[in-house]
């Protein structure tokens, strides 16, 4: 017989999720990496280093996405959208794991600042979830829109030879566009320009610091 989960069970579950997000190589993808059958072209040391910095930023972005979904999961009622929200969160875990694996291939490491960005994003997600479903979904849509633009920029900046990172980012781009569409169709509010501008500033701080740290 299934036991009803207690408050302590939920806390342990939550803690387990935090560790799976923050500990390198702990996230388990549900789909194989889009880079699985892709061969890299030529890259020199500088190009590899640059690719590593870019993929570190993308990995931290996915840590933030996890925190955002987890924070919302804690406070939002999500009467009709929980299933889709969980499906999107699972796809974000794939992104996290693919970026992590690619960073390792490039002999790099994930960012030291991840716990900081995780905490901030978790708080924002929980706050949006507590305000209400439309804001919560609107926040998902605005974030995904921004991530999409950011991925486009990174696809331009990646070294030509870095075909494996490119394959990962292209699939992520497709998934994020799908998350954005779903969140808007499910009734998410369109955020006004000043809120989007604030989010853009925050992401600038993240990308500048994480490229090196
Ligand atoms: Fe993602
Ligand atoms: Fe997404």
From TrEMBL:
Protein's cellular compartments: Cell membrane
Organism (species): Modicisalibacter muralis
Molecular function in Gene Ontology: 3-demethoxyubiquinol 3-hydroxylase activity; metal ion binding
Highest taxon of source: Bacteria
UniProt keywords, alphabetically: Cell membrane, Iron, Membrane, Metal-binding, Monooxygenase, Oxidoreductase, Ubiquinone, Ubiquinone biosynthesis
UniProt name for this protein: 3-demethoxyubiquinol 3-hydroxylase
Similarity annotation: Belongs to the COQ7 family.
InterPro entries, alphabetized: COQ7_proteobact, Ferritin-like, Ferritin-like_SF, Ubq_synth_Coq7
Cofactor requirement: Fe cation
Binding positions (Fe cation 2): 92, 144, 176, 179
Catalytic reaction(s) noted: a 5-methoxy-2-methyl-3-(all-trans-polyprenyl)benzene-1,4-diol + AH2 + O2 = a 3-demethylubiquinol + A + H2O
CDD domains: DMQH
Cofactor annotation comment: Binds 2 iron ions per subunit.
Signal peptide extent: none
Function comment: Catalyzes the hydroxylation of 2-nonaprenyl-3-methyl-6-methoxy-1,4-benzoquinol during ubiquinone biosynthesis.
């Amino acid at each position: 017989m299934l036991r009803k989960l207690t408050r302590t069970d939920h806390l342990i579950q939550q803690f387990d999720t935090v560790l799976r997000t923050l500990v390198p190589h702990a996230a388990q993808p549900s789909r194989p990496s889009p880079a699985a059958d892709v061969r890299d072209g030529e890259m020199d040391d500088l190009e590899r280093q640059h690719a590593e910095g870019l993929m570190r930023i993308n990995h931290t972005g996915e840590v933030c996405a996890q925190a955002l979904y987890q924070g919302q999961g804690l406070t939002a009622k999500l009467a009709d959208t929980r299933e889709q929200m969980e499906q999107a969160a699972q796809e974000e875990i794939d992104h996290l794991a693919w970026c992590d694996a690619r960073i390792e291939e490039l002999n790099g490491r994930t960012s030291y600042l991840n716990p900081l960005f995780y905490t901030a994003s978790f708080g924002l997600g929980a706050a949006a979830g507590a305000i209400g479903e439309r804001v919560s979904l609107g926040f998902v849509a605005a974030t995904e829109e921004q991530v999409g633009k950011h991925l486009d920029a990174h696809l331009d900046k990646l070294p030509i030879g870095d075909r494996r990172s490119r394959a990962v980012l292209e699939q992520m781009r497709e998934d994020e566009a799908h998350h954005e569409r779903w969140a808007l169709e499910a009734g998410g509010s369109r955020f006004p320009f000043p809120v989007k501008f604030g989010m853009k500033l925050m992401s600038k701080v993240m990308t500048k610091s994480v490229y090196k740290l």
